[in-house]
Design a protein that fits this description.
Helix content of chain A: 40-55%
CATH superfamily of the largest domain in chain B: Butyryl-CoA Dehydrogenase, subunit A, domain 3
Number of domains of chain A: 3
Radius of gyration of chain A: 22 Å
CATH architecture of the largest domain in chain A: Up-down Bundle
Shape of chain A: globular
CATH architecture of the largest domain in chain B: Up-down Bundle
Distance between the termini of chain B: 27 Å
CATH class of the largest domain in chain B: Mainly Alpha
CATH topology of the largest domain in chain B: Butyryl-CoA Dehydrogenase, subunit A, domain 3
Number of strands of chain B: 10
CATH topology of the largest domain in chain A: Butyryl-CoA Dehydrogenase, subunit A, domain 3
Shape of chain B: globular
Largest sheet of chain B: 4 strands, mixed
Radius of gyration of chain B: 21 Å
Order of helices and strands of chain B: HHHHHHEEEEEEEEHEEHHHH
CATH class of the largest domain in chain A: Mainly Alpha
Oligomer: heterodimer
Helix content of chain B: 40-55%
Strand content of chain A: 5-15%
Mean pLDDT of chain B: 97
Structural class of chain B: alpha+beta
């Protein structure tokens, strides 16, 4: 334990010394850093902070050092996260490289693939996107039709992917493609890596109800994929896909289930909007107050369940069945929170743009609309419940 | 706090689960009910549980106890909750014993606790009057000083295991008005004291409780527990700890009710298939699973918070009670529904769980009470 405390002290001192002051406090840029060839920093110091962290392995703290990670233990990584939070430092880098394809390559990639792809991820040089869903294959993901035709030293890709998050900003894509159209549907799928600048790849953003376009449709027309970029084995892509979905669901749950962060509590927001609300004491709207309690209680229960799972993992136990609930609970909870935030704001929760609304009120509308996607992306809530019923409870098909 | 079981705790859980399955099947609850058993539980089995060290788990070694925590006791209660064992852990160990351990003088503790730990003495806490609902500061009884003595008058309802307790710990208003935390005192009243009338109550869950009338009951200064007028906060702490124990019991009960329901879903055939293939039932089963997993996390957290004296203990107790109360009721309602017609029959066990779920929901504060408490503790 003494070693961990030493690590904590050194880490805190390093973080405090190295994070540029421009990235901290009220006036810090809010735009997150996703890196990649097309990335334009909102503030030049974001690049400084990224480079310093990457140098020390802090963008991917638990990955092996030889691939650009920090080589930290889980306990050390937890301390790093705690110290980052305590100093209110922005994460140096986010992205699917760190949360999805990286962990998957560490599990299934060859040494060559790890050496080629992991260090640029850690340095924020390459941004990744995910080519899973297709117009005809949503919840029935294994029904995907994008064809990869074996042409000897390479594959020729034809087809399209949909809901590719930020494909227009990404440099590489990891995609599921059909290599054997004759096989049973899960068995003819291969997991491929492809540079988005490959001729024959094109992207078109999709406008959502929130007004934003975070998702794209991605088209492949005779795009050449190299055989060295197959992950794991040909026609065994479904195994890799499922492992990656596990990383994705954990990520989505953690992103949405954690609750407030540094924002105002629900009760504080209610005091701002409810007529007749005093600075203290019971809120004047008893029904709304009770709804706030229910969301707070469910948020705490969920956080404790995530902690239970983490504590078990730290003690070297296998992940228990509780981990299967994270995605469905975290996302549905976030939707309830977003709706409650709208209801708390009342008529001020109806802003789209322009005059008459505060900027945090406009954010509210957009994030409420965005949250509706949480229970669809990464496996719908219905699919999650199917998985629990089948895999955990053993109910028959 | 860490939300995992230590090896020692795993062992307690395993031993208790085996014991409950072998020695305390649900059939026993049925027999006690059908035989109109005067005690309502088994004194022999209680003695065995004491010999196993479970009754003494939270008590000091000086009194024969194990000096362990609620985290350990919760494991025993969860296992016993699975088979609806009616033995008096809540009344004797957590409520009566809890109050004595927290506030009793050295003499009072020496007089009662070794007998409690050995399984020979039973206690009950009479905290609830006809007008209390869930407010511990409404006691339903008064205490008036007369010379060196105190005179108690009033009425108590649903005193858990009050019909067999060797002594009642009685809350009464010694000053101020009902509803105020200040001015409440606790008295230790042996069962045969003049003016004490105890009438057994029969409840829907076949658990044991009694109505108590106090008519000029005289207690000595040495039978006051803790400080006069100062028992309000203690009462809350004691009932909070008992609430965590009840939640652990509920966790075991809901898990067993769900296991029974799953077995039914996997074996009952309709339309030529087992009904567990129907998605309308699968998704509801998944929802139940989710609720039980969340409940398990909060029960573990609340028990550990109590053992560590965490500053947010009261919030966690209310959280656990809401979570477990709502989940247990939901799981057992769904269980009866999924069993279909036979779920309504006395022959099947699922109905026993539904009754217990309802009773547990309405003990120590229902969900609206605890949601309100959560909001108050949060300052809104």
């Amino acid at each position: 334990m003494a070693d961990l405390e030493t690590f904590r002290g050194e880490t805190r001192a390093w973080l405090d010394a190295q994070c540029p002051s421009t990235l901290r406090g009220q006036d810090a840029p809010v735009a997150a850093v996703w890196g990649g060839r097309k990335w334009q920093p909102a503030h030049p110091d974001q690049r400084v902070w990224l480079e310093r962290c990457a140098e020390r392995g802090f963008t991917a703290p638990t990955w092996p050092k030889e691939f650009g990670g920090g080589g930290l233990s889980k306990d050390e990584a937890k301390i790093l996260a705690q110290e980052m939070r305590a100093l209110r430092l922005p994460p140096p880098l986010l992205g699917f490289g760190l949360t999805m394809i990286g962990p998957t390559l560490l599990q299934y990639g060859t040494d060559d693939q790890k050496r080629e792809h992991l260090p640029p991820i850690c340095r924020g040089e390459i941004r990744w996107c995910q080519g899973y869903s297709e117009p005809g294959a949503g919840s029935d993901l294994a029904g995907l039709q994008t064809r990869a035709e074996d042409c000897g030293d390479h594959y020729l890709l034809n087809g399209s992917k949909i809901w590719t998050s930020d494909a227009d900003q990404a440099d590489w894509i990891f995609a599921l493609v059909r290599t054997d159209p004759e096989a049973k549907k899960q068995e003819g799928i291969t997991f491929l890596l492809l540079d988005m600048e490959t001729p024959g790849v094109s992207v078109s953003p999709i406008q959502l109800i929130s007004g934003a376009s975070p998702f794209c449709e991605t088209y492949f027309e005779n795009a050449k994929a190299l055989k060295k970029d197959v992950v794991f084995k040909v026609n065994a892509g479904w195994t890799v896909a499922k492992a990656l979905l596990g990383h994705e669901r954990t990520m989505v749950a953690e992103a949405f289930g954690s609750g407030e962060g540094s924002r105002a509590t629900l009760a504080e927001r209610a005091r701002r909007y409810l007529p007749g609300a005093e600075a203290a004491g019971p809120l004047p709207d008893a029904t709304l107050r009770d709804r706030i309690v229910q969301v707070e209680m469910d948020t705490r229960s969920f956080a404790l369940t995530m902690q239970r799972s983490r504590d078990a993992a730290k003690a070297g136990q296998q992940p228990g069945p509780e981990s299967s609930i994270f995605k469905v609970v975290g996302t549905e909870l976030n939707q309830r929170r977003q709706e409650l935030l709208m209801d708390i704001a009342g008529p001020q929760g109806l802003g789209w743009e322009g005059e008459g609304f505060e900027s945090d009120e406009l954010d509210l509308t957009r994030s409420w609309l965005r949250s509706r996607g949480n229970t669809i992306e990464g496996g719908t809530s219905e699919i999650q419940r199917n998985v629990i019923a089948k895999r955990v409870l053993g109910l028959p098909d | 706090m860490e939300l995992i079981l230590t090896e020692d705790q795993e062992l307690i859980a395993k031993t208790a689960a085996d014991f409950a399955a072998e020695r305390s099947p649900v059939a026993r609850v049925r027999e006690l009910r059908d035989g109109r058993d005067a005690t309502g539980f088994s004194r022999d089995l209680w003695k065995e549980m004491a010999d196993l060290g479970w009754v003494g788990i939270p008590f000091a070694e000086a009194h024969g106890g194990a000096d362990l925590g609620l985290a350990e006791l919760a494991l025993v209660l969860e296992a016993l909750g699975r088979t609806l064992a009616p033995e008096p852990f809540l009344s004797t160990v957590l409520l009566g014993g809890g109050a004595l351990a927290a506030q009793g003088s050295a003499e009072q503790q020496e007089q009662w606790l070794p007998g409690v730990v050995s399984g020979d003495k039973l206690l009950a806490l009479a905290y609830q009057g006809p007008e209390s609902r869930y407010d511990l500061a409404v006691t339903g009884a008064t205490a008036r000083r007369e010379g060196d003595e105190w005179v108690l008058d009033g009425e108590k309802i649903q005193v858990l295991d009050g019909h067999v307790a060797d002594a009642l710990l009685v809350s009464a208003r010694s000053s101020g008005s009902e509803g105020e935390t200040e001015g409440i005192s606790l008295f230790l009243v042996p069962k045969d004291r003049a003016g004490l009338e105890i009438v057994r109550q029969i409840r829907v869950d076949h658990r044991n409780a009694a109505g108590v009338r106090l008519s000029g009951v005289r207690v000595g200064a040495d039978e006051v527990l803790g400080a006069i007028d100062g028992a309000g906060a203690i009462l809350e702490q004691v009932v909070d700890r008992a609430t965590v124990g009840l939640c652990a019991e509920m966790l075991g009960g809901m898990q067993q009710a769900f296991d029974l329901t799953l077995e039914h879903l996997k074996s009952r055939e309709q339309f030529g298939e087992v009904i567990g293939t129907f998605q309308a039932l699968k998704h509801r089963a998944a929802d139940i699973f989710i609720e039980i997993e969340l409940a398990r996390s909060v029960v573990m957290a609340a028990a550990r918070a109590a053992d560590e004296g965490a500053s947010d203990l009261r919030q966690l107790v209310s959280l656990a009670k809401v979570r477990c109360g709502d989940a247990y009721v939901h799981v057992t309602n769904e269980g009866v529904q999924m069993y279909g017609g036979v779920g309504m029959t006395d022959e099947y066990d699922i109905g026993f769980y539904m009754k217990r779920a309802r009773a547990a929901q309405l003990t120590f504060g229902d969900s609206s009470h605890h949601r309100d408490r959560w909001a108050k503790l949060g300052g809104y």
